[in-house]
Every structure is written in C-alpha cells, then in structure tokens.
Backbone:
C-alpha cells in the first residue's frame, strides 16, 4: 500500500472539515476524490501533503507515519502536489519556472553556489536536463520562452503540474488541475496527466468535471460534509444512491 489514512480528522474551531476518513491508495492507481463544494477535498490534500496537521488520525506513506511531518519532508519522501491557485514566478519564462522548482526542492550548498564547484556545476546541468524533460513531458515546449504571466490560464495550470514533478513524486496530488479551462486546455492537461501516470506516478485527483473523473480514474472516493460516503470503481460510484443524492442533487443520469 502506497498511502493510507485512518480516522483522518481536521477541525477548524467547532467545524469538522474532515471527519474520520479512512482511505488507501495502491501504487500505480489514479484515484478520484470528489464531492460537493466545501466537502473537505482540498483539506484532505493539505493534510496528506503536510500543509495542515490533522486534529486526529494517521497518514501512512510507504509504511512510514508522516502525520506530523512538515511539507518539505513529505515532498522529499515523494509526495508532490499542485494548487488551485497556481504559484509561479510571473516574470520568469515557462522553462525558468520549471528550473526554479528544482532549486526550491533541491539541497544546494552555499559554498558550491558561490564558487561554482564541480559538484555544483554537475547538479546545475542535471537540473537543466530534467527541467527540459519535464517541459516536454507535459507538452509546454511551444511556450518554453513565454513569460509565465502571459500564458493562458490552462497553460499556467499545466506549468504547476510540471513544477510539481521536480520532487520526482511517487504520488501526485492534483487539486482541481482542470478548473476554469477551455476544452483545448483540458485536452493538454489530460495528456500531461496520462503521460505522468504512464511513467509510474500514482495520482490522487480532485476535480469537479465528473465526466473527466469517471473516464480517467481507476477508483473514486466521494466525500460529503467531511465524511466518506462512497468508494469504488466509477460505474459503482456513478450508480450509488447516496452519491446521487448528496453530490449530483438526485438527478444525475448514469
């Protein structure tokens, strides 16, 4: 088992944003995490990635309890993530943003950076090669030299995905990676996600576009009011009466 949560709970004051969520993800899967607005999906992503500490419960990654570890330690272990609001350096080009993501996640010595030691130069060459590889993998080669602030919204979201690959994630947590995109941008993002998955990366996907989730995911977990109400393959979840009532308003056609 790659990732497992048991009794995962997060309170904000008197509000239980996430309550007693048990979930497990095996290596190689694409798992969808869906639910109505405010259901607790992003909170779960923040807990798994270490940006929030749970009120109670456990997060086990590759057999290690990471519940109380800080975000950079989660990343170092191979837990990568994207964000709903895309973080990037607006005055950097697409390629330089991807390069920067490696420096933000890498261990670089002050001595090496000041004096350009052989080891530091070797690491720089490696980072440039890896950044180029990730740029091409996600399909952003055509906008390599565009300033990030000038990119269309969908391309900025895919840039966030490319940056998340710097930690060489074993699992990638995607928080609404296709929100607000045009169809062409959705196609770009889907192609990137499939390529990343084909390289062996496990994916946990939060996404409001249900047709995408149903077509892309091996298994789906449904959250409502912070609690897990269903889990299973797409066809099973699609026809679950509680899911239809809670998430689709009772009128979703299978």
Residues:
């Amino acid at each position: 088992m790659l990732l497992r949560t048991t009794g995962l709970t997060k309170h904000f004051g008197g509000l239980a944003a996430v309550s007693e969520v048990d979930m497990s993800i095996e290596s190689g899967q694409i798992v969808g995490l869906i639910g109505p607005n405010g259901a607790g999906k992003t909170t779960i992503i923040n807990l798994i990635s270490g940006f929030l500490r749970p009120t109670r419960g456990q997060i086990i990654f590759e057999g290690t309890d990471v519940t109380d570890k800080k975000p950079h330690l989660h990343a170092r272990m191979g837990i990568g993530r994207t964000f709903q609001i895309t973080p990037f350096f607006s005055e950097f080009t697409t390629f330089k943003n991807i390069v920067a993501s490696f420096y933000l996640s890498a261990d670089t010595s002050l001595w090496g950076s000041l004096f350009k030691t052989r080891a530091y130069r070797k690491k720089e060459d490696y980072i440039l090669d890896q950044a180029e590889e990730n740029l091409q993998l996600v399909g952003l080669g055509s906008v390599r030299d565009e300033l990030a602030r000038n990119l269309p919204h969908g391309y900025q979201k895919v840039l966030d995905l490319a940056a998340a690959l710097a930690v060489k994630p074993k699992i990638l947590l995607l928080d609404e990676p296709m929100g607000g995109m045009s169809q062409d941008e959705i196609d770009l993002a889907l192609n990137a996600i499939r390529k990343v998955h084909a390289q062996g990366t496990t994916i946990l996907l939060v996404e409001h576009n249900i047709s995408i989730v149903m077509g892309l995911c091996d298994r789906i977990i449904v959250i409502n009011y912070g609690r897990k109400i269903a889990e299973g393959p797409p066809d099973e979840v699609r026809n679950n009466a509680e899911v239809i009532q809670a998430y689709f308003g009772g009128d979703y056609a299978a």
Observations:
- Residues 3 and 25 are 5 Å apart (CA to CA).
